[in-house]
Amino acid sequence: MNPVGELIDPKIARVIALLIKNRKDYFHLQKISQEAGVPISTTFRIINKLVNLGFIEKTNVGNFKIYKIAGNRKTAQLCRVLSIK
Prior knowledge:
This protein is of the alpha+beta class. It is built from four helices and three strands.
């Protein structure tokens, strides 16, 4: 990871990297937690923050919430800064 990536909390970086590497996929909270290796409560806080900042899209499907990386300029800039393709 580049020096800028080292400034970001590793748990946040793992969640972001997972979603960016699977851009077309939707995930539920538990799956993000499992695949990123981050506790569910921490994943919940990270996801909510990233949704509020516009980096992640949240979709309600019945009683479930699913998430995917947003396809916007902010996310593209984040990918460049973190050197994620």
